[in-house]
Every structure is written in C-alpha cells, then in structure tokens.
Fold this sequence. Notes:
Blueprint: E1 8-11, H1 20-27, H2 34-57, H3 65-76, H4 92-97, H5 108-117, E2 122-127, H6 131-141, E3 147-150, H7 151-154, H8 161-171, E4 178-182, H9 185-192, E5 197-201, H10 212-218, E6 221-223, H11 229-234
Parallel strand pairs: 1-2, 1-4, 2-3, 4-5, 5-6
Amino acid sequence: MSQTKIKAVFFDFMGTCLDWHTSVVKSLPPSIPEAERSKLALEWRRRYFLENSQRHQQGLSPEDIDVTLARVLDAVLPDFPSFNAAIAPDSKEQLIQAWHSQPAWPEVGKAIRSLRDDLGLEVFVHANGTTRLQLDLTRSSGLDFNMLFSSQLLGVYKPSPLAYQKALDLVKLRPEEVVLVAAHAYDLRGAQSVGLKTVYIQRWTDDLDEDMDNVRTEFDGFINDMENLPAIITQL
C-alpha cells in the first residue's frame, strides 16, 4: 500500500462528483429545446450559489436545500418566459426532486475506489445541503463514502472556516492531513483558510463566473477530471 501524509479526502458533491446538469435538464419540459433547458438549469444553479452566499454573509443558519432551490426557481423563471406555460405550479416539486437523483461523472467511482483501496485513505462528502439529499445522491450515483457531512448536519455553510473545522474535529484529523477536492473555488478558498490541502477540478457546469487563469494558480492541484487524482494526492 502506498503511503502518503494525507489521511483523508473531503469531496464536495454536486458538480464535483456528480453531473447535476443531466438530471435537471431531463426533468424540464421536453417541449422546450434542450439548449434552452440547459440555460435555465445553469442559471438556476448559479443563482442558488448566490443565494447561499447571501445567507452565509448574513450569518443565517443553513436552510433546507429544497426550500432554497424552490425559491430560486421562482426568481429565475421570469427570465425564461418560454417556460411559463410549460411548467405547471404543481410540477415544481418534481423539478426540485430531480436534484436528488444524479449520476456520477464517469471517472469518479474508480478514483474514489483507488483512494480507498490503493492509498488507504478515508473519503468523505463535505458539502452544503441536507443529509437526506446526500443519502439520495449516494444511492443514485452508486458512490460510497465513509461519512456524509452536510451543512445541515454541521450547522454551518461552507465556506465558513467553522464548516471545515467541525468536520476535522469529528474525524480527529489535522488540517494538513486532509485534502478538499471541489469544483468551486470559493469552497477551496475557505478550506485553505484553515490549512487544508486543496485540489480544484474544472467542470463545465460550475464556476461559470470564475477566471480560470487565476484559479489554476490558487490551489495545490488543478485537474480536468479525477483520473489522476490519486497520483496528485500522493504528491501533496
């Protein structure tokens, strides 16, 4: 077994490990062209992050992600008038539930198995959201983790330093023994602030407002998929 000073990996979940875009686009009315469904899905996701950021800045406690997604959808729909007649009010709950069933990106399962089996590392989900959401997503994606840490469970949103520190305390590891893998620069910046190692994975579905030229130089690693993640972690 390979040895590394890293003992565990925290994974952000949606976007990082999971292809949320496919599930959400499929849930939207098929009468709308796929390109338009994609635009709405991407904007829905983008504004969800803005909403969470505002709640974090206001010091508010984590909200059920289903509630947040529903409110953000109502705010987004006026910008997409072609959807108004196609989405009935009583169908919105089904759209929210689409976020609870997502496939993993193709290479993720193999990478996580390698981290556990070849490197002997523990692997954890560390993501904003609810425990119910994470349980549903592990089932739909087929991914397996040692533990699921949600903002609901920890009582605080990322990127608050407390979110990372609470998880570290629970697994009894030091910051330098843990690497966070995420497709969101704000998340990795929060992890950096408490001393975690950081690996950024670029996903086309996320961080649409970030300058990738800058992001490439900010963290301990930058990857386009997880195929080489175990090799990168052994070098941290």
